[in-house]
Amino acid sequence: MTRTSAQPAIRKAGLQDVDALKSCIDRAYQPVKSNLPDLPDVSAGIADDIRDHHVLVAELGRRITGCAIFSLKGSRAHLMNIAVDPDVKGQGLGRCLIEHVERIARDGGATEIHLATHVGMPGNVTLYSHLGWSETSITGNKILMKKDL
Predict the structure, then answer these.
(1) What is the dihedral sign for C-alpha 46, 70, 23, 138?
(2) Structure pTM?
């Protein structure tokens, strides 16, 4: 577990976190869900993600307030999902999680990291661009982005 006075605790998720993770992800996406009918069920398969991928949780106190799900294959990492509870939005938790993902990916041999976000979530593109990501293409409702590590 990593913790500083200015940051939440970041740790690897375990199966005991499934319900809290699902709740956190559902809360994070609730504000946009009604406007994006083509948004997939972003909290489905959390137990499988914990088993098959890298899943980090952010905790404030003992409450899970954010998470990041990513995969690492050779020189390429893929950020599959990142979610921050709306109660703590704007406090730098998303940035903190992304920085942890990037460090783990880099330490694991990745030289680039990719993600897809929804065209109906322009705030995501703004955040990722601010953190050094660049758009690579738009396919249907997905904006694909990449960052060299």
Answers:
(1) negative
(2) 0.91
